[in-house]
Design brief:
It comes from Takifugu rubripes. This is Ig-like domain-containing protein. The chain is mostly beta strands and 228 residues long. The protein folds into two domains: 7-114, Immunoglobulin-like; 128-224, Sandwich (Immunoglobulin-like), CATH 2.60.40. It contains one helix and 19 strands. The strands form five sheets. Strands 2, 5, 6, 9, 10 and 11 form a six-stranded mixed beta sheet that branches. The longest helix is centred in the C-terminal third of the chain and has 4 residues, at 194-197. It starts with 6 loop residues before the first strand and ends with a strand.
């Protein structure tokens, strides 16, 4: 039996210390939970190993409780008494054992941040450019941005060239880093051809979407082509 299974998770969550957070998960339309076993895993930091949290109809453990609604294909995870050590990313996993076909399908993950401060903090981005040779054939430029001093770490980064969103040539840190344990930082670069860079009317803009715990704020920084 071959079919497409989607594991859909709820959006990122913020919680004050001691609060409760519910992470939602459901299977996509056309697929019933009765054919699958559902799991939750967590990842405490970027690139860390996944840790098992809970299994469908398994016994609840500590601050984690599972909530099941088979009729609606929902399998949620309730985190009670949230503490900073619970911050990280949670992944839902669906596993099916049928007709010798045993896929393990993960959801995209839900980021959970237990706030240690009442207010968000963001320092304006710092644009820069640098010259690179040889690594991608010939010479060219990278338009780049390094941002330091924001909290919490709910940010996303995108680039536009002359007002049009681009994805080719973009390299952004896989996750915001927290080197000194207080505020986060993230870096992003856009590979720019020499032809585009030396066009005087070229505009390279990096846009950061930052959730400060209450609302989403947009910040941007631009670099202009150098001309000839």
């Amino acid at each position: 039996m071959w079919f497409t299974v989607l594991v859909l998770q709820s959006g990122d969550q913020l919680s004050p210390p001691g609060g409760a957070v519910t992470l939602g998960c459901r299977l996509g339309s056309g697929v019933g939970m009765s054919s699958f076993t559902m799991f939750w895993y967590r990842q405490n930091s970027h690139a860390a190993a996944l840790e098992f949290v809970a299994k469908e109809y398994g016994q609840s453990s500590g601050s984690f409780q599972t909530l099941i609604d088979s009729a609606k294909n929902n399998f949620s995870l309730l985190i009670t008494h949230a503490a900073p050590r619970r911050s990280g990313r949670a992944f839902a996993l669906s596993s099916c054992q049928c007709d010798n076909y045993d896929p393990a399908i993960f959801g995209s993950g839900t980021r959970v941040t237990v706030l240690g401060k009442k207010m968000g903090r963001f320092q304006c981005p710092l644009p820069f450019s640098e010259h690179k040779r040889g690594s991608w054939g010939g010479s060219g430029r990278f338009a780049g941005l390094t941002n330091v001093g924001f909290y919490p770490d709910h940010v996303s980064v995108s680039w536009e060239v002359n007002g049009q969103k681009v994805t080719d040539g973009v390299a952004t840190d896989g996750a915001a880093l927290r080197p000194e344990g207080r505020f986060y930082r993230i870096s992003s670069r856009l590979r720019v051809s020499a032809e585009d860079w030396f066009r005087p009317d070229s505009d390279f803009t990096c846009i950061i979407s930052f959730f400060n715990g209450t609302s989403t704020e947009l910040y941007s920084a631009s670099l202009q082509g150098e001309g000839t």
